[in-house]
Structure formats: structure tokens, C-alpha cells
Specification:
The protein has 549 residues and is mostly helical. It is built from 21 helices and no strands. It has a single domain (37-534), classed as Amino acid/polyamine transporter I (Up-down Bundle), CATH 1.20.1740. Helix 3 (68-81) runs parallel beside helix 21, helix 5 (121-133) packs across helix 17 and helix 9 packs across helix 21 (501-534). The two termini are 15 Å apart.
Length: 549
């Protein structure tokens, strides 16, 4: 069990009016004393997670492509037998998120009554968006519509009008409201724990205390934290296994060289150098600045493609796709295809919900860390609506542009997809743009920053989870951030050595199964805390808990 003295303060709320000045002086002295202490790792969580990561991913480095048949078998077994669970879970997160935002607790402030947001709206949304999606959004916004054109849902014919209608709609669905709702229970539970209950423990198990009680102080709590770290690493493995090959393929085409494993490892090292520096610099010095820069760079890239592409077709196709999505939302949310067993919902929707769940703990802690002073409604709406709009714009630009090349310009992207994979297809899409000598290096730079903002945030959060306690103005030891950055880079190489989409998907699906249970416990704990603090009040804003000494 963690001690209750000399804790570092992670976040604090202003003192209630009735507290006297002498108490404030005592707290200030304690604060100054605490600043001299260093943050300690939790050896069970840190080394337990690291060892399990080695056990899971070392065989990929050793056996490489020999594992492909086994990976496909395991992935199919998990997705086909648990499809119903994933779909109900994701839809349940949507309902729970709407209840949080528009129910009686929507006006609860994540902090004291006088606390103000730490970051500007633009910085806050930039960090939330770039940390939540990463360069994987660019990858899938181009590749996903072509996959769905060739292998459409709902028994459609390849490249038919029905296939085209769902090609963009399904992409927006998989990166839309439901996906971001999976993040909400953890984000609000962690934010409530940190800023309202003022608990200085930056690990997920403590937020389960509302339901599990003191059992989180023992082996159960450490097991939860280890499972969360493994889930985070698995989700990152999926991202690295898609984005790095894409960057390698584009780089190789630009330089006129073979897209070999050496090129992929070289790209991995470059990306690793950037995200390691950012994670080493910390939240305000590295992650915040990279996120803001990345937002502006992405806007420039999107604007360019929108202007040089078939703009009117892109807008018309996008609006039509929004209508298809709105009309079929519930059907898409619960589609399992148990009769014909086409495999579409298992290969795509189940995979996506597992991927998003794998990221949920990291993103929940990250959003909690940057959302002090905001209301629950404000956080939930921005997480579900603003970010969904941002993701849909990528499909508006890159997705519709790729579909136009396939259907209207006679460019067989589907054949490139079959021959060279999604990475090769994306390179072909980029080479169809004008000014490729400028656009492709710019694209690679944007992807570099995009990927770095994702991985550095994750390494930052993983290192925080593996610490015993972190308080105000404190961050995890820098060596732990460097350790996790290095390990994540090695895991990315391991996944690429096996190769193929199944191993990329399995990295998220297999490691995120326990996360479902943890997210449900977090939601129930949050609900219990809200009822304890605010009861049946219809208008609530803030509650001030005393500081822990």
C-alpha cells in the first residue's frame, strides 16, 4: 500500500474559503519540501510490464514470417468468438458518454470552483487530437476506402454504387463518435480522481477504487496496471506496424531505392529519435509544441490536396457518406454477419474497437492530465464531436481523393493494394499529386511529427503509470521515458519482421481483451464517486476535497 505522507502533488485545487492562512503556509512548506524529492518507479509494474512485452514480442524478432499462419489463426479465433462483446461494449460506451455529458453531472468541474484550464483551447484540442489518432489516421483514410470498395460490407458487389457509398461512411464510422466514446470512461474517471478527489496516483488501478476498494493496493491493482501497459504497447504496435511501412515505402519511391527491411529500420530510428527527444523534454517543452506544430502542418497538407483534387466531387461524396452513416449507424454498430460469415465486421469493426480500447487507458490518462479546470460536458463533447469532425475531414480529403482515382481516373489502386500492400498504394496516391518533389518530402515530415506526437505521449504516460506517485510539477524519471521509447521502437521492428495485416491487428486485439473489463470498472467507479459527492443534485459544478498530506 502506498504511504500517505510526503506525496508529490500532481494537481491541486484552490483551498475552500473556510480554511485558514496558517494551513496554507503549512501546505506551502510541505510543497517546497516535496519538490526536492525524486519520483520513484513502481518496480512490480515497471519490470513486470517490460518482461511481458519481451515475452510477447521477442518471438516475432526471432521467427519473423514463420509466425504468420499462427497469427492469423489466433486473430480469427478471438474476433469471431467475441464479436458480440466488442460491439455491445462500444455502443455502451456511447450511451454512457452521452449520459455523462447531458445528464445531471455534465456541469461538474474537473477541479476546484476557481480552477481555470491549464492550456488554451487550441493547444488542448491539438494535443488531444494528435495524441489520440496519430499518423495512422492518414494511413487508413487513404487505404480503408479502397479496401471497402474491393471487399464491401452488407454483401455488396465490388466497386458497385453500394460499395462506394459505404467505402467512406465506414471509414468515418470507425474513426468517429463510437471510437472516441471508448476513451471517455477512462478519461473522465482519471480526471475526476486527479482533479476532484485529489489523488496523486497516476495509475489506472487507483481509479478502480470506487468499485474494488482497497484491493487495488495489492496484487489486483498491480495486475490491472500491468495489463494496461501491455494494452498500450499492443495498440502502439498496431500503429507502428502500419505507419512505419508507409513512410518507408514513400521514402524508397522518392529516393528510387528498394523498400527493404533496412529502409524500414532506418525510418524507425529517425521516428524514434524524434519521439524520444519529445518524451525526454516532457509535456510542456516537447509534446505541447510538437502537437501545435503538427496541427498547422496537417491543415496545410489537407488544404493542398483539397484544392488540387476534384473538390466538388469530394464535397458531394463526403456529404452523401455522412447521410449513409447517419441512416445506418445502428446497423453498423451491431453488424456481426452470423449467417454468411463474410468476416467484414470481425476483420474491421471488431479490430477497430479493440485498437481503440487498447489506447483507452493511455488516452484517458493523457486527457486527464491536460483537462484540469474543464467541465465533464466540455471534455466529453470535444472528445466525441470535435475530434470526430477532425477525423472525418481526413476522409473527406484523402479518402475521396483515393476513391476518385480508382473509380473516375482509371488508376487501379486495388491492384497496387494487392501487389504492394497499403503502403505501396498510398505512395501511388501521393505520386498522382502535382508538385511531388515538394509534396512528398512535406508529407513525410508531417508523418514524422504526427507519429512522434503519438509515441512520445504514450511513452510519457506509460512511464507515469510505472511510477509510485507523481504530484504537481513532477514527471516520471527521464530514463524511464527513454527506456519505453527504445522498447517501443524495437517492438515496431518486430511486427514489421513478421509482416502482413493480421499481425498488425493481433497486436491490438489480443492485448486489449482485459481492457474491456477495466473500462467497465472505471465507468462504475466514476458513477459511484459522482453519486457520493453530488447525490441527486441537478445543478452541480465543483466540490473541494482537502489535500492529502
Amino acid at each position: 500500500m502506498l504511504g500517505r505522507t510526503n506525496h508529490f502533488k500532481l494537481y491541486y485545487l484552490l483551498k475552500p474559503d473556510y480554511q485558514i492562512k496558517s494551513q496554507e503556509r503549512v501546505n506551502n512548506l510541505s510543497q517546497e519540501k516535496a519538490k526536492g524529492k525524486s519520483v520513484l518507479i513502481n518496480p512490480v509494474v515497471f519490470w513486470g510490464s517490460a518482461i511481458l512485452c519481451v515475452v510477447l514480442y521477442a518471438p516475432m524478432l526471432i521467427f519473423g514470417k514463420e509466425l504468420q499462419p499462427y497469427v492469423s489463426t489466433i486473430l480469427k479465433a478471438i474476433t469471431y468468438k467475441m464479436d458480440w462483446l466488442w460491439l455491445l461494449f462500444a455502443l455502451g460506451c456511447v450511451v454512457f458518454s452521452l449520459w455523462l455529458a447531458f445528464g445531471r453531472y455534465g456541469n461538474v468541474r474537473l477541479g476546484g470552483k476557481d480552477d481555470k484550464p491549464e492550456f488554451s483551447d487550441f493547444s488542448w484540442i491539438s494535443m488531444m487530437f494528435t495524441g489520440g489518432v496519430g499518423a495512422g489516421l492518414v494511413y487508413w483514410s487513404m487505404a480503408e476506402p479502397i479496401f471497402y470498395l474491393k471487399w464491401p460490407p452488407f454483401w455488396g458487389e465490388p466497386f458497385s454504387a453500394q460499395a462506394a457509398q459505404f467505402s467512406l461512411a465506414y471509414g468515418i464510422f470507425h474513426w468517429g463518435i463510437t471510437a472516441w466514446a471508448i476513451f471517455v470512461p477512462g478519461a473522465i474517471a482519471f480526471a475526476y480522481m486527479l482533479h476532484v478527489r485529489k489523488k496523486p496516483y497516476f495509475y489506472p488501478s487507483y481509479a478502480c477504487r470506487g468499485i474494488l476498494g482497497d484491493r487495488v493496493d495489492g496484487w489486483l491493482g498491480r495486475a490491472i496496471d500491468i495489463f494496461v501497459v501491455i494494452g498500450l504497447v499492443g495498440g502502439l504496435g498496431t500503429t507502428l506496424g502500419t505507419v512505419i511501412p508507409m513512410m518507408a515505402a514513400v521514402s524508397a519511391d522518392m529516393l528510387g531505392i528498394e523498400n527493404s527491411m533496412t529502409v524500414k529500420v532506418g525510418v524507425t530510428l529517425v521516428v524514434a529519435a524524434v519521439f524520444t527527444y519529445s518524451a525526454y523534454a516532457g509535456l510542456n517543452s516537447g509534446i505541447k509544441k510538437l502537437s501545435e506544430l503538427n496541427s498547422w502542418l496537417c491543415m496545410g497538407l489537407l488544404a493542398f490536396v483539397m484544392l488540387v483534387g476534384p473538390t466538388l466531387f469530394m464535397l458531394s461524396f463526403y456529404v452523401d457518406s455522412l447521410g449513409v452513416l447517419a441512416t445506418n449507424f445502428l446497423r453498423m454498430s451491431l453488424y456481426t454477419d452470423p449467417i454468411t460469415k463474410s468476416g467484414f465486421p470481425q476483420d474491421w469493426t471488431v479490430f477497430y474497437w479493440a485498437w481503440w480500447a487498447a489506447w483507452a487507458m493511455y488516452f484517458g490518462l493523457f486527457v486527464a492530465r491536460i483537462s484540469k479546470g474543464r467541465t465533464i460536458k466540455n471534455v466529453v463533447i470535444n472528445m466525441m464531436v470535435v475530434t470526430t469532425i477532425g477525423c472525418s475531414i481526413f476522409f473527406l480529403v484523402f479518402g475521396t481523393y483515393a476513391v476518385d482515382l480508382q473509380l473516375n481516373q482509371g488508376i487501379a489502386l486495388d491492384q497496387t493494394l494487392a501487389d504492394a500492400g497499403a503502403a505501396g498504394m498510398i505512395s501511388q496516391v501521393l505520386h498522382s499529386l502535382p508538385l511531388t518533389a515538394i509534396v512528398i518530402p512535406y508529407f513525410l515530415f508531417v508523418m514524422l511529427i504526427f507519429q512522434a506526437t503519438t509515441i512520445d505521449s504514450n511513452a510519457f504516460i506509460i512511464s507515469m503509470i510505472a511510477c509510485k506517485e507523481v504530484r504537481n510539477d513532477q514527471e516520471s524519471p527521464r530514463w524511464t521515458r527513454l527506456f519505453w521509447c527504445a522498447l517501443l521502437a524495437v517492438i515496431g521492428v518486430a511486427i514489421m519482421m513478421v509482416g502482413g495485416l493480421p499481425v498488425v491487428q493481433l497486436s491490438s486485439v489480443a492485448t486489449s481483451v482485459p481492457i474491456i473489463v477495466i473500462i467497465i470498472i472505471l465507468g462504475l467507479s466514476l458513477r459511484k464517486w459522482l453519486e457520493e459527492d453530488f447525490g441527486g443534485e441537478s445543478k452541480v459544478q465543483a466540490v473541494d476535497y482537502p489535500e492529502e498530506d
